[in-house]
Each structure stands twice: as structure tokens, then as C-alpha cells.
Design brief:
about 280 residues; alpha/beta; eight-stranded parallel beta sheet; 8 strands; about 15% strand
Length: about 280
């Protein structure tokens, strides 16, 4: 397979931008800093050559720091801005002296104190700015928030939405019917694509096989089609589930029935188009 793009990775320097969500006891594999050199090693191990770096905290300072990382491994940045405030000046601050293009924006809606954050009227103006700037909005949501995401996609039909981690399907062995129906509703909106990512980050290393993840991947394929799916490692969080390489190998096995061109779309082509990567 030709080298491609990993659509979802994180990089952090905890001395500069603390990641308070990392529990050193339960998340030992990721309780350290991860930089561009680490990213290059991971990409080499998974056979890809570039990645989209995604914000890890709702912090403008973090986005400014990430935009200054000068590495050929970084194709673009999904940054954070306060969508309820003036978006343009915030984007200007991130872009000043940046080495990485801003290709999208994300807000950690799944842990926002307001569980209805996506329905707030004041973010609509911010999303309109993203549309004018030809930027995407990444949706990081729990499965119960998928109906909110669907209403948002309908309200902003000219904006490209990227669903992270397939909207958090229940783990193997749990009932996926409600998640599946909500995912299909969201997928009916042509301005939405989805990242096949994060499916192993919550699983213990060695506790899963590719077959355990077949159901959500199949449902995603049926809902979006391979042309609207993007591979993401969710690295370094993938280390919690055994690593990025085992996850990519598992997904390759699950997508073995696709044509070569369809697999190329999933493993880089779609990311290049959706995020307008050069």
C-alpha cells in the first residue's frame, strides 16, 4: 500500500501545556511527552508518511505551540478556538509564524461542562467563520451526543464536519444498536465524514482481535462508504490499547474486501481532500 496520511494524532509537552486528563497510574504508557520525533517513528512503524495533529486540550496556547512545530511529518493542525468568541483574531494568533497550516478546529464537546454545548446559538457564528475560511470542524462526541451533531450538520450544510472515533461506539460485547442508528442518521448528511479511529484506545493490550472490531467498522462502511472514511491512529492514546501498528494492521485486515483505490482513500486520500492538504 502506498504511504498515506494518519488523520488523527496528538502531540503534547506537559510542562508547557498540562494534560490534566492523563492519569499516570491508569495511563502509564502515555504519561510522558510526545513530540515530532516520536511521531516520525510511529509513522514509520505504520507505513505512513504524514499525520494531522489534533488539539488535546481546549487551549489557544496549545494550538499556537503546535502550529509552530516544524516537521515534515505534520501535514496540518486541527486547532482549538473559542467558537463563542471572535474566531478570526484567534486564528490569526495561531497562524502567526506558524510552520503548520490550520486545517480545522475542534472543541472537546464530549467533556464540556455543558452537555448541550453543540446546541448553543453563540457557536453558530463561529462555525460560519470556519465555513468562510474553508476549515473543517471535528466532532468529538459521546454516542448520546450524535443527534446533536446531526442537527448541527443540518444547520451548517456548507461546513465540512469530521466525526472523530466514529462517535464512540460501545465496546465489544455491548449493545451497539442505538449508536448504529444514530451514526446512520448523521451519515445521511453529505457534509459529514468520519474517522475510523480510537476503537482500541479504551481496550487493554492483548484483549482484542480484529474480529472484535468488525461490527463497528462494517457499520461505518455501510453508513459512510469507504470514500467518506479516514484512518486515524489516535496515537499516542493508541498505546493504551497496544499501539498504533496493531490497530492499523487490524483495520487493514477488516478492509481487505475493498478495492485498492478504496483502501487508498481510507488511508490518506480522504484526509488529503477533506482537510485540503497540499
Amino acid at each position: 500500500m502506498n504511504a498515506g496520511i494518519d488523520a488523527h494524532v496528538h502531540l503534547w509537552d506537559r510542562a508547557v501545556n498540562p494534560q490534566d486528563w492523563i492519569d499516570a497510574r491508569t495511563m502509564a504508557p502515555i504519561a510522558r511527552d510526545f513530540g515530532a520525533a516520536d511521531l516520525s517513528e510511529m509513522l514509520a512503524a505504520t507505513g505512513l508518511d504524514r499525520a494531522v495533529v489534533v488539539q488535546s486540550s481546549n487551549s489557544l496556547d496549545e494550538s499556537i505551540r503546535l502550529a509552530k512545530l516544524d516537521s515534515s511529518a505534520i501535514a496540518g493542525l486541527v486547532a482549538w478556538v473559542d467558537l463563542a468568541a471572535e474566531v478570526g483574531p484567534q486564528l490569526d494568533r495561531i497562524r502567526k509564524n506558524a510552520a503548520v497550516p490550520v486545517v480545522g478546529v475542534r472543541h472537546l464537546a464530549h467533556i464540556d461542562p455543558d452537555p448541550e454545548w453543540m446546541t448553543r446559538e453563540e457557536i453558530s457564528a463561529g462555525l460560519a467563520v470556519l465555513e468562510r475560511e474553508d476549515l473543517c470542524f471535528d466532532l468529538v462526541v459521546r454516542h448520546w451526543q450524535l443527534p446533536q451533531a446531526t442537527r448541527l450538520a443540518a444547520r451548517h450544510s456548507g461546513l465540512r464536519f469530521v466525526l472523530d472515533h466514529l462517535g464512540g461506539p460501545p465496546e465489544p460485547g455491548q449493545d451497539r444498536s442505538t449508536w448504529a442508528s444514530r451514526l446512520r442518521e448523521l451519515a445521511r448528511h453529505p457534509n459529514v465524514v468520519a474517522k475510523v479511529s480510537g476503537l482500541t484506545s479504551g481496550l487493554a493490550p492483548g484483549s482484542w482481535r480484529a474480529a472484535d472490531l468488525a461490527a463497528p467498522v462494517t457499520i461505518a462502511l455501510e453508513s459512510f462508504g469507504p470514500e467518506r472514511l479516514l484512518y486515524g491512529s489516535d496515537w499516542p492514546l493508541a498505546e493504551l490499547g497496544g499501539g498504533a501498528a496493531p490497530w492499523k494492521s487490524a483495520l487493514e485486515a477488516l478492509l481487505d474486501g475493498l478495492s485498492a483505490s478504496e483502501r487508498t482513500r481510507v488511508f490518506g486520500g480522504s484526509a488529503a481532500d477533506v482537510y485540503s492538504l497540499s
